[in-house]
Each structure stands twice: as C-alpha cells, then as structure tokens.
Design a protein that fits this description.
Radius of gyration: 19 Å
Largest sheet: none
Strand content: under 5%
Number of strands: 0
Shape: elongated
Number of helices: 9
Distance between the termini: 33 Å
Amino acid sequence: ARLNEENLKIALRELGEEDPITLKVMSNLAVALGEMNNKEDRERAFDLSEKAYRLRAKVLGEAHPDTIESLQNFAYAQFYRSGKNKAVELFEKARDLSYIAFGKKHMTTLEIMKNLAYVYIELKRGQDAIEINREVWERYKELLGEENPKTLSARFALGKSYIEGGEMKKAYELFKKLLPVQVKVLGEEDS
C-alpha cells in the first residue's frame, strides 16, 4: 500500500487528478488499503474508492469499464464499512452498468453478479441470492462448460444460497451431484 501511495503522489503531481493513469493508481491504492485490517486504512480506502469512482464517472462516463471497476471497489469499501444496504445499491448499479457495457454473459458481469449475491447472503436475502447464483451458474456452464473451476465455484455458491434461503433439500441434492465432479476436476485434496 505504501508503494501505491507514493505512486499516487507522483501521478497527482505529474499527470493531474483526472488523468486515467492517476485514477487507476488511486483505485489500486483504495483496493490495497481496503485489504488492511485497521479501521484507519479502511476509512481511507472508502474515501479513495468513492473519489476514484466519482472522478472516473466524470471523466470516462458511467458505463466505461474502468468506472464500473471503481464502482465495484466502492461497493466493497461500503460493505466493509458496515454499509451493507448501500453496498447492495452500488453492486446493483454496477451490475446494471455492466449489462450495458459488456452484456449479460461477460465474465465481468458474472463476477459482479456473484459479488452481489454474496452481499445478499450477508443480508439474509437468500431468495435473491438463489436467483442470481442460479443465473451465474447457468451462464458459466454455457460459456465455460460444466467442469470449469469457475462453473464449479458458481455451483457451490448456489448451494450456499439454497442453505441461506432455507432450501436444505435442494442444497443437499446440488452438493451431492457437485462433489464427484469437483473430485474429478480438482482432485481429492482440493475438493
């Protein structure tokens, strides 16, 4: 994080606050600070991620891939700042913008949807998470195949959503079918 802080100072001085390179460095620093375990760094991460998002939206437009990336980073910062309901709004906005920028079957869109489902689970919105995780799993299956690790991960997330949504029988059935495929693809050690 300290190297990123130095890079940001240089980029601000040499390129200015609204330069795309400066905004990338700012966004990277926000992510690095957000991964720290102290409150001060997380607060700085929140402030920087919000600033990077707002500046990218101004300079590049709302539906630009870099702006969507910053919006998702801002959503994470909001989530970790105990603003889970606000994080849902931000992730939903990122998903909707990703539909416009990339389409519904793009990997970036699917990752944003997975993150949104995770937040839904944290908020005890199991049915919402089930809908999204089912859609993500189906799309990964279509794009990458049944045995791709991303597809397997999405299927596992759907199972967790079933549990959170109180659908234990569906979770059991899904996990029962998932385990042999995971063992085949990943080996016993990683399953």
